[in-house]
């Protein structure tokens, strides 16, 4: 995966920190904030910011979903890294349509060296880049999603996926409910599949996969009562969940051994996921074949021969009717 030390790139083969056989995700380190205040270090301005993503990265997928739902594509530039990593980490491949449209870099570590010259840490996507100060603003997907919702999002439509209050009840405690779901989904599901897939002991795997399905079971129960996680309104919690759902049956189920059930075995979740998939602009951010091949790529520990199993016979193109709350 590689890393940078004091602004210089070094290749290595580690996937993440390990502790007693458990996968530990390292925190994002660049946490600048775009603000609507005019005296902000990074003020909200149309055309000022550029987003770096990769189609196969679930964390980057969050930000692309928000671009679509907020209608921000005309205000924020976008560069897409190739759906693979080499000894140079995330790279670009212009011949196959994966080009850095801002600096014409060959790899993401060049973007980090330019925009955070003394950076030490992993080179990840997504990255939000400020073209006016020539600096990386932020490389934490949760932060970027929130900025796209509010500060930068004010440049586009008025959809608010993390509202403070709603005119129509029940609005009391909505942000609290969103935060609760965000926390559980991240710890037990978004990251839980990786804790299972990259576990190096039986105990670590058992803990990770148990959390994955406990959370899926809880969501299935919730969706029997409400259309979305917090009620009848699409919120940020959906953005935190959806990118894991679309990767589940083609990737996590087999490659990460999260195989107690498939997504399609959860009737409420399956209906819910397809409803979101068919919202305007969302389908265009989903690439099942890239996920299938990416999660089954060659790995000396998980898939030594790099054999990608056939995709399950599942169609997301069949629309599902809306859920009527009980």
Short key terms for the protein model shown above:
globular, three-stranded antiparallel sheet, Glutathione S-transferase Yfyf (Class Pi), Chain A, domain 2, Glutaredoxin, alpha+beta, 326 residues, four-stranded mixed sheet
Structure description:
With 326 residues, the chain is of the alpha+beta class. It has two domains: 3-155, 3-Layer(aba) Sandwich (Glutaredoxin); 174-279, Glutathione S-transferase Yfyf (Class Pi), Chain A, domain 2. Helix content is 35%, strand content 13%. A four-stranded mixed β-sheet has the order 8-7-12-13, sandwiched between helices. Strands 2-1-11 form a three-stranded antiparallel β-sheet, with no helix packed on it. It has a two-stranded antiparallel sheet with strand order 3-4. Strand 3 and strand 4 (22-24) form a beta hairpin. The radius of gyration is 20 Å and the shape is globular. The mean pLDDT is 91.
């Amino acid at each position: 995966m590689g890393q940078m030390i004091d602004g210089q790139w070094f290749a290595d083969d580690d996937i993440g920190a390990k502790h007693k056989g458990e996968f530990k995700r390292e925190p994002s380190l660049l946490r600048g904030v775009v603000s609507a205040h005019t005296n902000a270090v990074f003020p909200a301005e149309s055309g000022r910011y550029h987003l770096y993503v990769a189609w196969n990265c679930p964390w980057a997928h969050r930000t692309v979903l928000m671009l679509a739902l907020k209608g921000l594509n005309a205000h924020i530039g976008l560069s897409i890294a190739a759906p693979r990593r080499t000894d140079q980490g995330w790279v670009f491949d212009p011949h196959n349509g994966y080009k850095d449209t801002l600096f014409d870099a060959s790899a993401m570590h060049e973007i980090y060296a330019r925009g955070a010259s003394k950076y030490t840490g992993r080179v990840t996507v997504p990255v939000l880049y400020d073209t006016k100060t020539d600096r990386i603003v932020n490389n934490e997907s949760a932060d970027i999603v929130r900025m796209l919702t509010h500060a930068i999002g004010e440049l586009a439509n008025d959809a608010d996926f993390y509202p403070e209050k709603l005119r129509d009840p029940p609005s009391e405690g909505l942000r609290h409910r969103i935060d609760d779901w965000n926390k559980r989904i991240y710890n037990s599901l978004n990251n839980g599949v990786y804790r299972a897939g990259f576990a190096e002991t039986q105990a670590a795997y058992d803990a990770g996969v148990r959390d994955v399905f406990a959370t899926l079971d809880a969501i299935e129960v919730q969706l029997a009562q409400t259309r979305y996680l917090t009620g009848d309104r699409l919120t940020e919690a959906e953005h935190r969940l959806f990118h894991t759902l679309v990767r589940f049956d083609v990737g996590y189920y087999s490659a990460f051994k999260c195989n107690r059930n498939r997504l399609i075995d959860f009737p409420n979740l399956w209906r819910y996921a397809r409803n979101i998939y068919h919202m305007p602009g969302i389908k265009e951010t989903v690439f099942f074949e890239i996920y299938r091949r990416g999660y089954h790529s060659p790995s000396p520990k998980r898939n030594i021969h790099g054999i990608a199993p056939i995709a399950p016979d599942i169609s997301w193109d069949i629309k599902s009717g809306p859920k009527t709350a009980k």
